[in-house]
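Checklist before submission:
- one chain only
- standard amino acids only
- sequence pasted in full

Submission:
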Amino acid sequence: MSATSTAQAHIDYELVDGWEPKVVVIGFVTHTISDPDHAHELGEQLDSLIRSELPLNFVIDFRNVQALGSTAFGEICAFARRVRWWGGSVRICNLHDWLQLGAALIGLEEHADFAASRQYAIQEARKSGQRGESETVYYPASWN
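Returned file contents:
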């Protein structure tokens, strides 16, 4: 990325379940992420959601995504691996047919579960949250 460029917001998120959220739903505001610089920005933005004040159960909704490059898929897969390492879960929903090949090639199904709909993904993520309520998660000091 050049010194004159600025980071672009590629995702937004919402917390599900009010005051005591159990799930973070991530949506895309960028419809196409095909170059490596934007893919790395995506990875940084996803990683910023792994923090102590947010639940570790994520739903990534691909409804608005038209195209993703291999580096972007790699960043999503790396995010899912990190979330699982910390004891959380990642669910993917609304992945268009034309994007499924990229997800398969990068091995995303090894690190995230796929759901037919956003509602079902949230429901399943809530179940993960209920199972993990008694577990204590320790974040690195830099993530607080």
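Reviewer check: The beta strands are 11-16, 23-28, 32-33, 57-61, 67-68, 89-93, 113-115.
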